[in-house]
Write a structure and sequence with these properties.
By secondary structure, this protein is α/β, with parallel strands linked by helices. 40% of the residues lie in helices and 14% in strands. It has two domains: 150 residues, Aspartate Aminotransferase, domain 1; 231 residues, Aspartate Aminotransferase, domain 2, CATH 3.40.640. Strands 2-8-7-6-5-3-4 form a seven-stranded mixed beta sheet, with helices on both faces. Strands 9-10-13-12 form a four-stranded antiparallel beta sheet, with helices on one face. It has a two-stranded parallel ribbon with strand order 1-11. The two termini are 37 Å apart. The chain binds pyridoxal-5'-phosphate. Pyridoxal-5'-phosphate binds next to α5.
Length: 415
């Protein structure tokens, strides 16, 4: 069975709306479109119960119930418990607060492994800990294609390592890092693992029980929802954090690592993501069976096959061009590579290519995308960076074929 992409697109108002429907949207790693289920919940919250939640009156209770539905949905999607979930304003902020909350575990001379493949959100907050005498060890990408080699980590890890902070999937390179192997190595020396799943979560529904990591972070505005960041921590790992909220909220799971407090309407909208996955499940598989996590996983089996198909059209084109430097693997396969494809044309600025594509109503990104260390490590100019084509399951084969045609003309100087 294949993903019914026409049905998928029918769930997204952006594909029906005059301003957006003629655009080919390939900047999904920057933020994805949202299905009607999410928009409806956001609208309903604002219109029907935009009041302080969890109060004594009915409107307020309903507001709280809608937020609870979202906490439950996010937890169920990840196969987690609700009290293991923090929903904060963004992944950058969640990781910053997490770093503060783990600081008390670290002594001068202790070591933290960070990568130069990660988005800065999972680097800078840890590097700041060096102000307290903590030493940073950088796991570096291979020069050729930007991938991380596990032997590089092996050489860095020692009894002094207390934390390993690493992305599940770089927002430029697209390779899925083997988090089980990374975690196994880290746990052998007693280190905690913090995984950035922001570029992973649009493509995979992880089971946090088997992911191997201690903390997993992702951003819901890139996974078809409102603008929030989700941070999961195992019970054991959360016990090791120091509360960062008001002292009287420190034992409340929603506040412990979120001093900003939950953002009511945006959180209430998140249950719409799970609802959307269930709409896809119902369309493809019929009556609901199993847990939400199991249903979403089944849907994402179709999603990943479709995304690999899309990615390989572009990869097959790019890998045949001698003037193109492609980051990561040149073939997409489920479990190996996400449909986030970055490249640099040796003879043409990335911004120029992105601008030219935009003239054809093809939206892609260009730049370093806050993975500046990665772009620099690969010897590229971070000001210009790479062209990034990030595809998700609602993109179509025809869209990628059109992109290839237009890109070919641009690279030949005819576009
Ligand atoms: C891989 C990766 N990690 C982290 C982030 C930061 O997420 P947020 O914008 O929610 O802070 C991004 C954002 O682009 C990202 O791509």
């Amino acid at each position: 069975m294949e993903l019914d992409v026409a049905f998928v697109r029918s769930q997204f108002p952006a594909f029906q709306t005059a301003q957006t429907k003629d655009w080919i949207f390939f900047e999904n790693a920057g933020g994805s479109y949202v299905p009607a289920t999410v928009i409806d919940r956001l609208q309903r919250f604002f219109v029907e119960h935009k009041v302080q939640p969890y109060g004594t009156f009915a409107l307020s209770q309903r507001a709280g119930e809608e937020m609870d539905e979202s906490y439950a949905a996010v937890a169920q999607l990840l196969n987690a418990d609700m009290d293991e979930i923090t929903i904060g304003p963004s992944t950058t902020l969640n990781l910053y607060i997490l770093a503060q909350s783990l600081r008390h575990l670290l002594r001068p001379g202790d070591e933290v492994v960070v990568t130069n493949q990660d988005h800065e959100a999972n680097v800078g907050c840890w590097r700041r800990l060096s102000e307290h005498g903590v030493l940073m060890r950088e796991w570096r990408v291979g020069k050729a294609d930007g991938e991380l080699d596990i032997t590089g980590l092996e050489n860095l890890i020692s009894d002094r390592t207390k934390l390993v902070c690493c992305t599940l999937c770089s927002n430029l390179v697209g390779t899925l890092n083997n988090m089980n192997a990374i975690s196994e190595m880290a746990h052998k020396v007693g280190a905690l693992v913090v995984a950035d799943g922001v570029s992973y979560a649009p493509h995979v529904i992880p089971d946090v029980q088997t992911l191997g990591v201690d903390f997993y972070a992702y951003s819901t505005y890139k996974t078809f929802g409102s603008h929030q960041g989700v941070l999961w921590g195992s019970k054991d790992a959360l016990r090791q954090t120091e509360g960062q909220g008001h002292f009287f909220n420190e034992e409340k799971s929603r506040y412990r690592l979120n001093p900003a407090g939950p953002q009511h309407a945006e959180i209430a909208a998140l249950a719409g993501i799970a609802e959307y996955f269930d709409v896809l499940y119902g369309h493809h598989f019929g009556d609901a069976k199993g847990s939400l996590h199991e249903r979403a996983t089944k849907v994402f089996e179709l999603v990943s096959e479709h995304e690999a198909r899309l990615a390989n059209i572009l990869l097959d084109y790019l890998k045949g061009k001698s003037n193109i430097r492609l980051l990561g693997q040149d073939h997409a396969e489920t479990g190996k590579r996400a449909s986030t494809i970055a490249f640099h044309a040796r003879a043409m600025p990335s911004t120029h290519i992105a601008q030219k594509l935009a003239e054809h109503r093809i939206g892609v990104g260009s730049g370093h995308f806050y993975a500046l260390r990665c772009v620099e490590a690969l010897g590229m100019d971070p000001e210009d960076g790479v062209v990034r084509v990030s595809m998700v399951h609602y993109n179509t084969v025809e869209e990628v074929q059109k992109l290839v045609g237009v890109l070919d003309a641009i690279l030949a100087g005819e576009g």
